[in-house]
Amino acid sequence: MKRHTVSMLKFALLCMVFVSTPFMLSWTLSFFFPIQDYPVDYMHMKEEAALPDSDFSEFESTRNFAQFDENSKQNVDIYDPRIYMVDKNGPVYNDVSQSFVDYIAEHLEIRYEVLNNFAKYYKYAARLSLRNNGSEVIKANNWSIYLFHLKFIEPTHIKSEHYALVDDGQFNITHIDGSLYKMTPTAAYVDILPGEIREIILNNDHSMVARTDAFPNWYVCTKDSSPRIIASTQDEDLKFVGDFGSMAKWKRSAADLFDPYTPDKRFFLNADAHDHGQANKLVIPTPLNLTKTGDMLNLSDKRWSVVFSDDLVMEANLLSGEQKQKRPGDADTKCQTIVRIMDQLQPHHGPCTTPEHVDALFATFGSRTNQKIVMRAELKFEKYVNEEHWQPAPVDQKPPDIPWNIHEEQNDEKPSEIKDNMVQTQTLCRTSGSSRRDKWCQSTAMKNFTLERYNREVNFVMKVKELIKGQEQSHDCVSSLMGYSMGLIVHGQAVQEFGCDTAVGGVFHPATGQLDIPIRKDQPLTHFIHIRVGFVSLPATSGHLISDEAYSIETNCDKNIVRITGTSAAGVFYGVQTLDSIYNHNKRTIHCLDVVDAPRFSYRGIMLDVARNFFPVYEVIRILDTMAMYKLNVLHFHLSDDQGWRLEIPGLEELTRIGAHRNHNFTLGLSLAPSLGSGPFSNNSGSGFYTVQDYRMILRHAKSRHVQVIPEFDMPGHMNSALVSMEARYRRLYMTNMEEATKYQLIDPNDKSSYIAPEGHRLTTLNPCMESTYNFVEKIISTLKTLHQDIMPLDVYHLGGDEVPVLALNDSPICQRFMVQYPYYNSTTRLREYFVHRLVEIAKKLQVKVQAWEDGLLDSMKFPFRMTDLKVPQISVNLWNNIWENGRGHRTAIFANSNYKVILSHATHLYFDHPQEPDPEERGLYWARRFINTQKVFSFQPEHIYNNMDEEILGRQILKNDACTPGGMVDCIPVEKPENIIGMEGNIWSELIRTTEQLESMLYPRMLAMAERAWHRASWEGIVDDHVRERLRLEDWELFANSLGHRELSRLEGMKINYYLPPPGAVVMGGTLKVNTMFPGMIVQYSINNGTTWSDVLPDMKFDAGVVLLATRSYNLLRRGRSIPVEIHY
After folding, report:
1. Exposure on the CB side of residue 373, measured as CA atoms within 13 A
2. How far apart (Å, rounded) are the C-alpha atoms in residues 1000 and 1049?
3. Rounded distance, CA 411 to CA 731, Å?
4. How far apart (Å, rounded) are the C-alpha atoms in residues 202 and 346?
């Protein structure tokens, strides 16, 4: 009877669901078909997976995964267990549908071409071509192409109706979310025959003047298939995008004054820096005072040592290159072994020599930035290391068998995780209520997919063990595939269990070059480098400097003594960096000189965006090293945005289980929607996160380099990843624990506000009217404080605060009731103000200071919130939106005069996500300026902000005297409290940056120019006479550019950094070719056979008539920059 009553109750509940709102569907399914808290193996399946398209037929949105389109005729089974592997040969459940999708992916050639940026006001026209290169007809068959688009497609219809009909109604284009669109054949669709080309004209927002505005990895699928990436779009070079061969394509409008540089134009511009044949600046950033006292001091004598005190062990180790002092007992041996294993996995010079090995590694490990595969093998690898195999195996010794190895399905000795995984799958199948699910559960694929996945992990461990042997002939291949990542896992084990220090020489590439001399505490009579903390006397005429980071270097070449004194350990560290800069590693000599130095600003930062695209731990470590080389001291770590949440928060697992992954599972609420070219799978930079261990590893390394890490979780806007994740948490818990389910809820379930955020997302703003929002905020900040506490106490939390849509929250019933109770907060802008006040209160309680982007701290009248209202002594603000012609360039003065601590992050000079030339082939966004090259960064005058007005976005020159007149372009309010400008920050946003190589080419060497301005106050800054100031600036730039080309870029290359290789300038005179580069000393190559072979250009070379390709090459011959054609005429 009891069982019958329970059955009737369930039936009644089910009936209630289907006669009530579709919003309840997912809740009911979770009750009848429970999944307990996402077991680890199930989550692994999701990380690798891409589910077939759901039954959304009209409008798809990530607004709320618990809500389905009211017009949808079929319900969506959100617990369908059809999990599809990243492997393109993964299981499918409809062979006919899958073969059709595979055909389209392989044979449909996509081509996208800008036609005209002048077509309509602030709109551009593009042609999308679909060519059937196969032998079969492409019929309707319910397929859809998912494409990524930076600007709104058909905005007139998409923004209001969410869809648009194109190609005479043959295709329906739906805006899914962010940059993701879906294009589906309609009833009017006409089959595409073999060899036929279908051309579709699209009208789009704004303009497109760069190839990298397009995204790769478009994909196709049906509701009954696994998605497949369309091969013609699977290309980081974006070859499917047409050329920009006319003004209507490379200009944003008829008023745009920019044209791509011709070789002779570039030659003329490069002439600003003549080649001096040497690095004129011995040190970058330029020291305050540097005086040569003699010739050279030779450090090759074995009597040399580094003398230090106990509080400078880290600095001494970095300078000398010695390993950390031994620890007693087993921990000592194990730490040393871990370091040795890591060294074997470090990158090496030279290309991979065995293509087959590269292919095998790539098939096993995935892409370079795919840490998930590495992470899955972590426990197994640590087990291998911990048990008995501390020493790398001898060359002739066969690696021991892996005890958990399985190769046959009938093997009875399956590890527990395999069993758990299969039990989970079988549970899903037993609770099946879907015919489609039943079909899949009965298939062979279901029986094999967990085994296949596990065998791939076994193969991974096998490969790692082979690499640990250390004698693989193609060991160099490790550098580009997984060396750092695997090394970091081993090092993480050492840190966690034995306290091995991240500053140990050889573990990471050190910020110094290492002198390879011993360390000691007792001071000999001669041949020593003494590092100490002490008093440093700064010149009274040097202006305001940061004495806490001052240092001096004294060299006594007669007595062979070098003394480095810093006012703090950081000052000593910067002295070590200067010593490394003047050290000749080949000759083992340094210049005899005296240095007195200190920075102009206390805040010298880099903002790294890992949310739009994720970058692995080793890349963050490498950036920290280069920051330290050039005396930068703040990593502003942008860890969340609409497109991803990148840090594990214990207790809120959905933030990374769902919010850190972008794939086609988004239709079922199991991930974020694909975005920014990430494709349907999670095996790329669109997905990933830092574990607690990863993050603490980064903190340790930052501390060893005297870099402060300021974490940012952007809120209340740009929160799509967190909102989707917390809604999934709510759905998981609400039936069993409503109090816990609502504890961190961020969305009003009845909010019907309709808005589109700047990047195309329709759900971005957390609800500041809900108390649970502040539970979430406190949870995040308190977790960060815990993670930082014993390494680098959390001093500052960056709340973000930028770009909150004005229409967000308008139709939230909870906010409407809140406004009645508190009438002052009667708009989204004022609700943002309330949110900031509450967050500041929480941070104050936790003894953490707050930092934000400027627009997060502006009231409805565009004035800063009053500091007295915020009730805290200090808030720091990043000033970024200084577009002169928009009248916002005076905000720096307004905030500084209002007692905020100002960090200059001006988009016109310090946004490193912008192109480095006004050329369609250069990577980057261009909303603030058409291009920002290294010289532009170098020219920035942080203490004279209005001197930075040079040109408008479209290239028209700005004259300061005209712009600052009453009624002019800018209200040039004077900075009355310059002491409140505390620093500068270079910003590297990653919307268009998907690989570490792309990241590095955008960051370097612009970062070096920013470091120069943040540390050193140039003599030409602030000179009133424009002509005199410009002349002196160009003279200084010439010295700086020569130092980059003749020394600094080579140092970066030694750290395996893929810095930007600028195209060369060239002129032809009587058949004689003359070339130059932006950074004198770089080598230019030529090709006369369309790039088949390359040779260095020699002085005054003559060529026959025709086209010659030119490109700048790296010093190690491994890379070339963008090639340019030069026509030789007679």
Report:
1. 32
2. 12
3. 38
4. 48
**Angle of CA points 419, 422, 426, to nearest 5°:** 135
| Among 315, 378, 803, 833, the one annotated catalytic | 803
The string of DSSP codes covering 629-667 is: HTT--EEEEEEEETTEE-B--TT-THHHHTTT-BSGGGG
CB 183 within 8 Å of CB 144: yes
CB 109 within 8 A of CB 128: no
Higher pLDDT, 1008 or 364: 1008
Name the nearest CA neighbour of 932 among 1034, 1002, 1031, 841.
1002
Out of 67-71, 452-456, 518-522, 611-615, pick the least confident: 67-71
pLDDT digits over 644-700, tens only?
A: 999 999 999 999 999 999 999 898 889 999 999 999 999 999 999 999 999 999 999
Contacts of 611 (CB under 8 A, 6+ apart): 638, 639, 640, 641, 642, 643, 644, 645, 646, 714, 721, 990
Is there a contact between 1004 and 1059 (Cβ–Cβ < 8 Å)? yes
Mean pLDDT of the chain: 80
Share above pLDDT 90 across residues of the chain, in percent, rounded to a whole number: 66
User: Helices 692-704 and 617-629 sit at what angle, rounded to 10 degrees?
Assistant: 10
Element spanning 829, H or E: helix 828-845
* Dihedral sign for Cα atoms in the order 894, 895, 898, 899: negative
Helix (H) / strand (E) element for 119: namely strand 108-120
Quick: pLDDT tens for 137-147: 999 988 999 99
pLDDT number for residue 459: 53
User: Rounded to 5 degrees, what are φ and ψ at 718?
Assistant: 55, 35
- Residue 355: pLDDT over 50: no
Q: Give the range among 64-68, 617-621, 895-899, 946-950 with minimum mean pLDDT.
A: 64-68
Edge-to-edge strand ranges of the sheet holding 123-132: 108-120, 123-132, 197-205
Calpha distance 795→1057 (Å, rounded): 31
Please answer whether residues 763 and 726 qualify as being in contact, where contact means their C-beta atoms are separated by less than 8 angstroms: no
Of the listed ranges 95-104, 451-460, 573-582, 617-626, the least confidently predicted one is 451-460
Integer Cα distance of 591 and 788 in angstroms: 40
Instruction: Give backbone dihedrals phi and psi of 839, rounded to 5 degrees, phi first.
Output: -65, -40
Q: In what order do the strands lie in the sheet with 1072-1076?
A: 1065-1069, 1072-1076, 1101-1102
Which amino acid belongs to residue 376? Answer: R
- CB atoms under 10 Å from CB of 70, counted, come to 10
803 belongs to the catalytic site = yes
Q: Taking a C-beta distance cutoff of 8 angstroms, is the pair 531, 312 a contact?
A: yes
Question: In Å, how far from its chain's centre is CA 920?
Answer: 22
User: Does residue 1093 register a pLDDT over 70?
Assistant: yes
Q: For residue 333, give the H/E element and its range.
A: helix 329-344
pTM of the full structure? 0.80
At 330, the pLDDT band (50, 70, 90 cuts) reads very low
pLDDT of 1071: 80
- End-to-end CA distance of the chain: give it in Å, rounded: 102
Q: What confidence score (pLDDT) does residue 119 get? A: 79
Whether the predicted pLDDT of 583 surpasses 50:
yes
Residues 1001/1059, Cβ–Cβ less than 8 Å: yes
Range list of H helices, 898-995: 907-910, 934-938, 960-963
Cα separation values, 698 from 616, 779, 902, Å: 11, 21, 26
C-alpha 707/C-alpha 700 separation (Å) is: 10
User: Do 508 and 621 meet the contact criterion of CB atoms below 8 Å apart?
Assistant: yes
Q: Which two tokens stand for residue 235?
A: 């290309």
- Dump pLDDT digits (tens) for 862-894: 999 999 899 999 999 999 999 999 999 999 999
Which phi and psi (to 5°) does residue 449 adopt? -65, -35
